[in-house]
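Researcher: Here's my situation. A collaborator sent me these components and asked whether they could plausibly form a single complex. I don't have experimental data yet, so a predicted model of the whole assembly would be a useful starting point for our discussion.
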Amino acid sequence: MSDQEAAPLQTAPFDARFPNTNQTKHCWQNYVDYYKCINARGEDFAPCKQFWRNYHSLCPNGWVEKWDTQREAGENPSNFEI
Amino acid sequence: MVAAQAAKKSFWSIWYKTEIIPIYVTVGGAVGLASWYLTRLARHPETVWDRKNNPFPWQNVQQNENTKLHAVNAKFDKFHSRDRL
């Protein structure tokens, strides 16, 4: 398994707000921050992508799907506006 | 009733004796430790006291601040202190 150009493997960096093993809130915070960023700056704003990468690393896929369906139905209780 | 009165009388008649100082020390120490830990929990950035004005207290933790008692393998400049409710 030798990759000629291996993509750099990375994950969500350390966040001092969430130093403990339980990263639930870290996951939620990144999800909310990504959509806040998108709503404020538009989908093509590149620095928003860091939040996207973070929540895809941290959150279980089931949660992401559940929140996405809730968000599309307008039922997600989190506030995605700044 | 009589027993309570007798017990009350006998505590106040012996509170000054040196033999019961260990009781004061132990109970005082336990109460002190418990209240220290409770205040630590109350001041933790995860505890929400004011839902209207400060619903996300962990957002006030800067990236160079430590919130743990003993941080292993990590260098922080200072300890986080919670300024507001």
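Model: Some features of this prediction you could bring to your collaborator: The domain at 24-74 of chain A is CATH 1.10.10.140 (Arc Repressor Mutant, subunit A). The two ends of chain A are 45 Å apart (CA to CA).
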